[in-house]
Amino acid sequence: MHRIARLDQRYVWHPFTQMRDWLRREPIVIVRGQGAMLEDAQGHRYLDANSSIWTNLHGHNHPQLNAALRRQLGRIAHCSALGLANEPASRLAEKLVQAVNAPFRQPATGNPSNRRQPPGIPTPSRNPELSKVFFSDDGSTAMEATLKLAYEYSRRTGRCRRPRFLSLGGGYHGDTLGAVALGHIDLFHQAWKGLLFKTDRVMAPHCYRCPFNRAKPERADAREYRRCHWECVERVETACARQRRRGEPYAGFVFEPLVQGAAGLIAQPQGWLARVARIVRSHGTLLIADEVLTGFGRATPAAGQRWFASHGEGVQPDLMALAKGLTGGYLPMAATLTTQAVFDAFLGEYDEFKTFFHGHSYTGNPLGAAAALANLELLSRPSTQRARQTVETTLRESLSDLWTLPNVGDIRQQGCVAGIELVRDWRTRRPFALREQAGIRVCETMARHGVLTRPIGNVIVLMPPYCATTAQVRRMVRALRKAVQEVLGSV
């Protein structure tokens, strides 16, 4: 066993990992990366098929991101945001505000730009302008700040005396306690139930497993052949109306736009978000978008030139949480964007104590902000848009070959994100029991074929960095196909 692997097994406790299983085999020790490739301590090379847990946008060891960090290191690596400002964070806040509002700017003539809604999708009303940025460290802390801002804003403005939140079944918004309270995945959250405040949930639009979908299984994304009457949307209407009858609306509706990550890459049917946004806003509730996974082009078609999944259906939330890809996968940094109205609710005289009493030691740190600025510049390039288009198109074309496998039940792709759900029999949608570790075993076999990713239960994640070539994306899918055949071929 490599010496670093021995050190790891002796001292390191890994997240979301059953350590008894971890200690049974030698772990892969990553020592370097280049583009979409990773190399371990034994000299083996792998394709990074999940962008290093959904964070890396442009590949590893990127020259522009490296240069941005070196330049900032020559100035200052860290300074406090409590009572001090710094140039990279200030410039980054400006760029984020510009980027998040760009699709909704009023043209010189005609209607606002959200008139470009796809046919048949209602346009959400009262899309606000996001004008303020609160920096934090990661997706959990971004959601924690979002939650506190929405709670206190609703209370101070008299919208709610006892603010309450609504979120989706299968939702995951981080591991700090406030974020956990917003989530509804029993496997992750049940253990902490005694520590949490109560939130309400409504069913997620999971077409493949929806009890209202009357369509029989087909060899296609379940969103394409579903037969329903938008019962999932009706549940949101019912929940909002019930809460309003109790005397006050929900303080916020929390959602992952277009695709729910930790739920199993559950891609939402076209039109769901726009419909729900109109309902929620009609009941006086804030829209809170968790774009930690979906932001910066992950879940939006490259051709649309949109960076944020909410904008894919013309929705501008009242609060938006960003992290993961913010720095291109280089450093932990996050941001919560919100409106002038929310910001104003915290203004007052010193002794009124209306300050937002929340913060982090590394809030707005110059190194992270410098990497994020370089990342935004890369995203703005036409070459990056073309690269995203290549990944998206190649992924869609290659994944179509997997429908011939009897253990592939559903393939859900949204932009450059894909989830492949493994089942015992596609004709019945019968799932594998978690104890069978079907997803884990398939991913372990993929690693032996030179491709690294991590499953969500029985769903295999493919999320290549934008720099991945056509050949590399095809190789990722081929490795998945081989692994499914080798592991589940006799099922």
Which terms summarize this structure?
Aspartate Aminotransferase, domain 1, Aspartate Aminotransferase, domain 2, 2 domains, seven-stranded mixed beta sheet, 14% strand
| Terminal-residue CA separation | 33 Å
Low-confidence runs of at least 5 consecutive residues: 108-115
Question: Sheet with the most strands?
Answer: 7 strands, mixed
Structural class: alpha/beta
Provide the CATH topology of the largest domain. Answer: Aspartate Aminotransferase, domain 2
Strand portion:
5-15%
What overall form do the CA principal axes indicate? Answer: globular
Q: Fraction of residues in helices?
A: 25-40%
The CATH architecture category of the largest domain equals 3-Layer(aba) Sandwich
**Cα-based radius of gyration, to the nearest Å:** 22 Å
Number-wise, the strands total 17
Q: What would CATH call the class of the largest domain?
A: Alpha Beta
Strand order of the largest sheet: 4-12-11-10-7-5-6
Q: How many domains, in number, for the residues? A: 2
Task: Estimate the mean pLDDT confidence.
Answer: 94
CATH-defined superfamily of the largest domain = Type I PLP-dependent aspartate aminotransferase-like (Major domain)
Number of distinct helices: 16
